[in-house]
Amino acid sequence: MKQTIKIRCKNNKKTGNFPIGSTLSEIFSDFGLQMNHGPISARVNNKVEGMHYRVYHNKDVEFLDMTVSSASRAYTRSLFLVLCKAVKDLFGLALVVIDIPVSNGFYCDLELGRPLTEEDVNRLRTRMQEIIDAEMPITRHECPTEEAIQMFDRLGDIQKAKILRSSGQLYCCYYDLDGYVDYFYGTLVTNTRELYLFGLEKYYDGLLLRIPSRSNPDELGPIIQQNKMFEIFKEHHRWQEILGVRTIGDFNEAVSKGLTTQLINVSEALQEKKISRIADQIANPSPFGGVGGGSPKRLVLIAGPSSSGKTTFCKRLSVQLLACGLKPVMISLDDYFVDRERTPRDASGEFDYESLYALDLELLNQQLRELFEGREVQLPRYNFQTGKSEPNGGAKLKLGENEILVVEGIHALNPELTAQIPDEFKFRIYASALTTILLDYHNYIPTTDNRLLRRIIRDYKYRGCSAQDTIHRWPSVRAGEEKWIFPYQENCDVMFNTAMLFELAVIREQAIPILEQVPECCEEYAEAYRLLKFLKYLVPIPDKQIPPTSLIREFLGGSSFKY
User: Fold this and answer.
1) CB 326, CB 282: distance < 8 Å
2) Would the pLDDT of 21 be above 70?
3) Residue ranges of E strands in 461-531
4) pLDDT at residue 1, as a whole number
């Protein structure tokens, strides 16, 4: 008699018996489920697995479609595989680097030894579609890591060999698409026919690989011009060249050679140099951008998403502004909240404190105007316990000689926040932690992972929140950012990346024990497990080597700044 296993399906709340060793694809078919954009992958006992996965014990299974972030990432990785296969078919050993998420897609650098042309892009797009239309199976292989290293060494893929050498894994998996082999640190689809939609465009001097929108998987995400965002990534590429580190494999190798202190010191110096240049632009702006010839700005507006390090950036910028002869004066937007009963409500009927209209915009603009006219104002104070604004609760303020207002908050770049203040008074800064280091040339690190890990540590250490709580709230945090922050990021005069190449290796030691506390029985375990798996690729760096003024001290502790 054939042995069977019991599967509890979360999608339809049914339980079924299946032959031991059944794949998730077979189990999905037997349950008779229907998904318009899936299944792409599944949560198996709250770990995300590909549809190749074979089940040998009783499990809880939830099948995932394109509207779920982990499934969307699996779809995207599968498109990367098809792109790399198409490059090899058309251009042989040309190097392709899956680089950065931008403009609702992924920028890819294709090194042909000559400029990329529109004809090249058209040929690649056609070849990718041919591979998809051929319904080629994507085969998953598991082998001893040493064998995989030898294979990638033979293929000349040094970066893959580097990351696998430093992974510490005894066994690893790689994927085969019609003889083309590659390594990805997450799941892929089982057949190219599942890749129903993609786009490929020429973008600057490289490619933009476009993917379906998670909110509407029948459409590609629209191409949004993000010129300033693209420039900040290019700046960090220049910094990577200075440090000689572009991937986690490069980083681990540099640490093993005793270059840790140099990596930290140069990274911190590059960041401080950028902050100094920003202060110079504020103190002595040029009418054409840059420095020189103009009068100092009177209002510095600093925006950025959750855990972007805005607070420490403000403090370090303030030091540099003082060095330029300016005296920064901080105003907290939190004190301009309207009374609780006047606060807008979200779709679920809850108070929406993230809304721009939770702030008293009229009072803020009135007081800013009066300050710039040389008058004294009585700042309000918001009482979070009573939910009431106290008009006389704050300090009295009058701007003195060489004093400059600094306002930090998620709405700082929204034009409506300071609509009544002339633009020539303002200097706008967008600060975020944009991970620029790659796992290897075909494995990017989601830019939000850096911020999520920072927030997990900060919430645990200073707010009494578990990693499970933080992960649970993260989707709503991200939804608020999509609505209130990201649409205005290109309004800035300057973008500043608060992430550093060495940062994740320092975060690793504090984050791992917190993530390990997330119980397997909860849905958040899938994300905790993914982050744990990723962090273990990094060689750890003790936080004692990080200077007290570092931006990441805001999250790790030990900062010389007061918060």
Assistant:
1) yes
2) yes
3) 494-497
4) 53
Can you tell me the distance from the alpha carbon of 332 to that of 217, in angstroms, rounded to the nearest whole number?
A: 40
Q: Give the containing element (helix H, strand E) for 48.
A: strand 47-50
d(CA 221, CA 214): 8
Mean pLDDT calculated for residue range 531-547:
93
User: How far, in Å, are 353, 357, 390, 476 from residue 411 at the CA level?
Assistant: 12, 10, 22, 17
E strand or H helix at 29: helix 24-31
User: Which one-letter DSSP state was computed for residue 136?
Assistant: -
Distance CA 203, CA 378 (A): 51
Q: Is residue 445 over pLDDT 60?
A: yes
- Nearest of 205, 100, 70 to residue 528 by alpha carbon: 70
Predicted confidence band of residue 225 (pLDDT cuts 50, 70, 90): confident
Collapsed DSSP state (helix, strand, coil) of residue 99? strand
Instruction: Evaluate whether 506 touches 546 at the Cβ level (below 8 Å).
Output: yes
For the cut 90, the answer to whether the pLDDT of residue 93 exceeds it is: no
At 361, which amino acid appears?
Answer: L
Q: How far is CA 501 from CA 14, 104, 158, 288, 552, in A?
A: 47, 24, 20, 32, 12
8 to 5, 44, 55, 65, 400: CA distances (angstroms): 10, 10, 12, 18, 69
Asked if 268 and 500 count as a contact pair (C-beta separation under 8 A), the reply is yes
- Could you read off the pLDDT of 355-388 as tens digits, one per residue? 999 999 999 999 999 999 999 999 999 998 999 9
333 to 10, 160, 309, 337, 391: CA distances (angstroms): 43, 47, 17, 7, 14
Q: At 346, is the pLDDT very low, low, confident or very high (cuts 50, 70, 90)?
A: confident
Choose among 537, 553, 534: nearest CA to 545. Answer: 553
Q: How much of the chain exceeds pLDDT 90, in percent?
A: 83
CB 87 within 8 A of CB 96: yes
Contact indicator for 433, 422 with CB cutoff of 8 Å: no
For 60, residues 6+ apart whose C-beta sits below 8 A from its C-beta are 7, 8, 10, 43, 44, 45, 46
Per the CB < 8 A criterion, the answer to whether 79 and 129 are in contact is no
Strand partners of residue 6:
17
pLDDT-wise least confident of 193-197, 300-304, 383-387: 383-387
Name every residue whose Cβ is closer than 8 Å to that of residue 400 and which is 6 or more positions away in sequence: 327
User: Rounded mean pLDDT of the chain?
Assistant: 93
- Coil, strand or helix at 451: helix
- In the structure, what pLDDT confidence band is assigned to residue 543 with cuts at 50, 70 and 90? very high
Provide the whole-model pTM: 0.91
Query: Can you tell me the distance from the alpha carbon of 550 to that of 312, in angstroms, rounded to the nearest whole number?
Result: 8
CA–CA separation, 196 and 75 (whole Å) = 10
Say whether pLDDT at 288 is over 60.
no
> And the tokens for 104?
């609702």
Q: What is the DSSP letter of 540?
A: P
Two tokens, residue 134? 């051929």
Residue of 503, 533, 500 lying closest to 515 (CA atoms) = 533
Sheet strand arrangement including 95-102: 95-102, 105-111, 206-210, 199-203
What is the length of the chain? 563
Dist CA 387 CA 339 (whole Å): 6
